[in-house]
């Protein structure tokens, strides 16, 4: 029988967060090794729990989750999201502007599939969350990376964005707070992004899944709250702020000029109807309300709270290692440290994280897995307790002592 090959549409689709390095980790686990999984922001794996009101509402209303529901989402769940958006200051939205589905990942895929024609270009930050780039590619579009400036705390470079706009540019992605850098965008930067979208008739696609995971009194600015003149699609969900990644509850909100969405809405309806409806159990969790979860995350990111103290510990630890530097994250769950590639003769960041995995059994993600062009960064998740993070820091410190990728042995870097 002739070999069955994957679709050519997947040839340029990458998702290295769960790619070759994770596969190597799985092989090590199958051999009996314990791997510290610092590659994904998965709160439940590190002892974080969703709000009890969400759990209880699912348990108490299981029978309501058994039939198909509205393909756009349960009205009761959308009502909770609508009220939250109004508290934030979203202008002129109603239930028909909200779509609920199986996590933000599905919502991004649905929107991009409905939006992008072959050859259309979507501007995406570099570094990015790679699902965005992969989804645009799979839809037949062309992801165009725009630079975020590490020296400015990873804020988007507005001038670089302007140079990347062409006749096929259709949308501009914003990831704020940012994954993988932990940057929180300043209001003037958001206003600048809105102005660019206005000048070039672009749709703004705003990924805000970490919008309440903020440190040091920082605040989040959503573009939907600053303009009603241009179309904005805002994505959010339960996985991070509400610590319920496995519930797979995500949504998006359409805001801006109502008349401009008519044909696009038809496309969204076609795609939503094709998959019948989103996960009904998770919509019961949304229906339960957000207040307990908002209060819980606020405590976690405040001084003395677990996330705050873990961020402090890992940041101090990483920046104390010779050859590593890092912009301190202001939001989200990650550090994106820079490696001195000259000091360690690093030419391949994936090799670096593979070498560290094999020697120390700690799983990280290399920077190019986030479509960063140089081999000089990696991402580390700071969800484990402080003592575990400090142990990882010492393992990394020991590993880097004498590490030199310029002395290859079987394709790996070695200790000098």
What does this structure look like?
There is one protein chain. The chain is α/β, with parallel strands linked by helices and 416 residues long. It folds into two domains: 8-49 and 298-415, Alpha-Beta Complex (Aspartate Aminotransferase, domain 1), CATH 3.90.1150; 52-293, Type I PLP-dependent aspartate aminotransferase-like (Major domain) (Aspartate Aminotransferase, domain 2), CATH 3.40.640. 37% of the residues lie in helices and 17% in strands. The chain has 14 helices and 17 strands. It has an eight-stranded mixed sheet with strand order 2-9-8-7-6-3-4-5, sandwiched between helices. Strands 11-15-14 form a three-stranded antiparallel sheet. Strands 1-13 form a two-stranded parallel sheet. The protein starts with 19 loop residues before the first helix and ends with a strand. The relative contact order is 0.16. The mean pLDDT is 93.
